[in-house]
Amino acid sequence: VLAGIINTLAGNGSVVTLSLLLFLGLDANAANGTNRIGAVTQSGTALLTFGNAGKLQILAKRGLHFLIITLIAALIGAKIATDIDKNTLEMVIGGLMVFMLGLILIKPKRWLRATNIEKNINTPLNYFIFFGIGLYAGFIQMGMGVMFLAALVLRANFSLIDANIIKLLIVFAFIIPVIIIFVVAGQVNWELGITLAIGQSFGAWLAAKFALQHPKANIWVHRL
User: Fold this and answer.
1) DSSP assignment of 36-100, as one string?
2) Among 121, 128, 215, 213, which Cα is nearest to 163's?
3) What pTM does this model have?
4) Count of H helices and E strands in the chain?
5) Between 97 and 84, where is the model more confident?
6) What pLDDT digit, counting tens, does each position of 85-124 carry?
7) Which residues contact 119 (CB under 8 A, 6 or more apart)?
8) Which of 176, 139, 187, 163 has its CA nearest to residue 41?
């Protein structure tokens, strides 16, 4: 539930879920694959909640190019992840946890802006950035939400709430084909994956309701 709240409002909830899966005895590869099950149901639940509030259509259209580029890159990243040595993957997970914290703490006021719909966001640099994030997201997922938010807020000038909705849409689009890659590789534990799915979906619903109703949601998203 906590991971669902964190992932929907901000990102990096996989720090919680990956740690739990490793603690429960899965190796790094199986934990990396199983972790995606909760992500797909959580993203779908949050999108339905935002969609019912009329926040989805215009943002989906504006972020369409990013979605396509990220999807292609995520499939490549997932294939790499299924082939990597589990000890190497554990080292990567540990180092990235530290890097994500640093990204958020640099110039925090830049994150508290309103959406600028006049800005041209379809630039070669933005496409390159989203391809890189997609590659990473397919590879490990942990921290991808923070990366998406950084690109959408700091580069594409969306508010944190609007950036969150686009992030969820992109993740939902690529996570299902990515899961298939991990299933084929035999790196998904369904018992733990379904447990994650139930908890994270409930957390996502709570978080989406909060984001829509709280007048200072942007501030609380950044703090989280």
Assistant:
1) HHHHHHHHHHHHHHHHHTT-SHHHHHHTHHHHHHHHHHHHHHHHHHHHS-HHHHHHHHHHHHHHH
2) 121
3) 0.77
4) 11, 0
5) 84
6) 767 776 776 677 677 667 666 666 666 667 777 778 888 8
7) 156, 157
8) 176
